[in-house]
Amino acid sequence: MRNNTFLFYTIMILLLTSCSEYRKTLKSSGYNEKLEAAMKYYEEEKYFKASTLFKDIKPLVKGSEESETVDFYFAYSLYNLDQYEASAKYFRAFIELFSRSERVIEAEYLYAFSLYKVSPNSNLDQSTTIEAITAIQNFINKYPYNDFSTEANKIIDELQVKLETKNFENAKQYFKTRNYKSALIAFDNFKNDFPDSKFNEETSFLKIQSQYNIAINSFQNLQEQRFKDVINFYLEFIDDYPKSPFKIKAEEMYVESLNILSNFATQKK
């Protein structure tokens, strides 16, 4: 019991001493002491204390030799604190200011990775995702054989899927709201933008269904050409996806369209 009490008080004394030293360093006017302490806290993975000191030092060392070190580790401290939006901002500033630094490759990767970490879910606005993809692709193009490149390629694949999902759901929304003409345009745009997407099979099927719904609800004088379009969409679909799970439903619309066109042909005789 006495040993536990002694240990508790020892820990408390150490904590209080540590906090006292940190506050004393924070209040000091010279930057050398702060920089030394900031690097020590960073190495000890005490990133909040390190980031606070680096932030204080930044304006004091601007233009000096220490500026590169302070700016880099300040951004890195924010990154390690999961403050990715802020770390992206400061890594980008570092890249622009110290473009010839030996640390710039790592900074460029961490800038891109920070953007990746703040990329939202696929149901939200994807402007940050696009920014992250651009940054990562630029990194891969500049440093294709760098140690970070393998991870960068994995990240860009993940972001690409997120972006595809968002664009597919946007296109599909036109279909869900029965705005079929806009859906056709959106589906074509999607396939052009993402030619290798896993959603293209469903996109091709929804094109058939959209065109069928347009045709079935059209004035009679417009139906013939519109049902011909249904048939053409089906033939494209079945060529690309002969074993699709959507095949049966697509075939039903195809056969119905053939029957209606056959009736049109009979009426013309």
Notes on the protein architecture:
The chain has 269 residues and is an all-alpha fold. The chain has a domain at 178-269. The protein is built from twelve helices and no strands.
Shape descriptor: rod-shaped
Global Rg: 30 Å
Class inferred from helices and paired strands:
mainly alpha
Topology pattern, helix = H, strand = E:
HHHHHHHHHHHH
Cα separation of the termini: 106 Å
Determine the mean pLDDT.
88
- Extract low-pLDDT stretches: 1-18
Proportion of residues in helical segments: over 70%
Oligomer: single chain
Beta content: under 5%
| Count of distinct strands | 0
Major sheet details: none
Number of helices: 12
Summarize the structure.
This protein has 269 residues and is mostly helical. The chain is built from 12 helices and no strands. It has a domain at 178-269.
